[in-house]
Amino acid sequence: MEIVLRDIHKHYGPVRANDGISLTVSSGTVHGILGENGAGKSTLMKILAGFTRRTGGEIRLDGRPIFCDTPAQASGLGIGMLYQDPLDFPLLTVLENFKLGHPENDFHTLRDRLDRISRRFDFALNPDAPVRPLTIGERQQLEILRLLELGTRILILDEPTTGISATQKTLLFKALRQLAEEGRSVILVSHKLEDVEALCDSVTVLRSGKVTGRMETPFHAHRLMEMMFGAPPAKPARCATSPGEPVLALEGIFAAGGRTGLKGCSAIIRQGEVVGLAGLEGSGQGVFLRVAAGLKKPLEGCIRLKGEHMTGRDHHAFKTAGVHFLPGSRLEEGLIPHMSIVEHTALRKGARERGAFWIRWQDAYRDARRRIADFRIKGGGPDAAAASLSGGNQQRLLLSFLAENPALLLLENPTRGLDIESAHWVWGHLQSQCSESRATIVFSSAELDEILMVADRVMVFFDGAIIKDVRTSETDVGRLGLAIAGKV
Ligand SMILES: Nc1ncnc2c1ncn2[C@@H]1O[C@H](COP(=O)(O)OP(=O)(O)OP(=O)(O)O)[C@@H](O)[C@H]1O
Ligand SMILES: [Mg+2]
Fold first, then answer.
1. Could you report the per-residue pLDDT of 389-409, keeping only the tens digit for each?
2. How far is the CA of 337 from the centre of ligand 1 (A)?
3. Which of 188, 247, 387, 402 has CB 3.0 to 4.6 Å from 337, enough for a Cys bridge?
4. All structural domains of the chain
């Protein structure tokens, strides 16, 4: 099935999210859409999937113009999309989610189908498990299977590799190649060059709503970077730190949550350190960060902050002690999707000036504009709703709410969804913020390269335990990769 997009426009007021984009995707191929944060990738794909209506332009399928104004129409034409932020129902089970949109009503038959299609792609999903505690990778697998079961012939995946483990990525890419070999078209949206290099047959690069280039394999990485950013981005400079007194000490922590919980974790984090948490997604890193932030009470074990006993105290007490936590799921835990940037700032201000009843909107706008400028948040100004920002810009907004002088920053996948230029910028910002105040950073990341680039020390989680704790200067991607798989 050949898809041709011709001169697609999408305007949101003054924002030209898509500004005359044309591209062709042949059947049986994997086509990449590459571009920096806010380039217009998700908008273009939402138009193709019937989620968003275009302002202008034409879409043809095998030469015939099509009208896909709703996701149901698009689905009827065989177009299915895996969205950047999961659109599943977390409170339902895997099987119940799999049923969504499916004409079959008999759960026994559905269970068989799910089982068969999971085996075909090597995905291991328990039909009766609730979706909420699943990893992002597993939720994606479920959604892909659901879309395929509905007869999707053009599968669009929006940033499917952000926040999933290397193993899950290998599985996913194998499944996607398999789909292309069966004659389906796969469109992979990403801002990661390595994804495109590993999987795609051809790529279109977008920037500021326009096409800046196209390329077929073999790809020329340097040239693609130029098409994305204008020039290849510079890496943040690392400054060596000498760790000070212990800031956070965890002893024998057992905690529930996530896929594995924590099973007897002990760690000491010292002032000024940058510590990366590696591991397959859901191996305990998220629970570790939440326990350290006072958001999750351990079942057993003891927590000390700068020597003071904090076990059993609430998040507010941790915050008062200078601990700041940034969650990984932006639209679920971090931001309030339909509130604007200025409303988010007003909420913060309200919290800061306790006792004040009225919101001083003038101040809130000034504050919002400052954040937009400092964090280079693109996409519509102070009145833009958080959900309307591109994924990368939502992350920048979240980062702009980090406390100014924290003692301990706990960051869950802080650069998830950020393009390389933005990720480097964020680390540059965090490093300069923290080097002044000698703050400590503990962050989780699915990218080993990132951990090796910015962290002083790495702790590898496996099945709820820390199985390796080593200075980054004394390890490499290969050795960390083995540890992540439980082979120390
Ligand atoms: N519903 C909306 N209302 C207003 N502006 C929007 C809306 N959706 C997208 N935009 C704007 O359109 C532009 C393109 O956004 P889009 O989400 O398509 O970018 P992207 O390339 O997917 O970026 P990312 O890599 O960060 O996900 C951004 O400036 C964004 O703020
Ligand atoms: Mg996007």
1. 988 899 889 988 887 788 999
2. 14
3. 387
4. 3-229 (3.40.50.300), 246-322+403-484 (3.40.50.300)
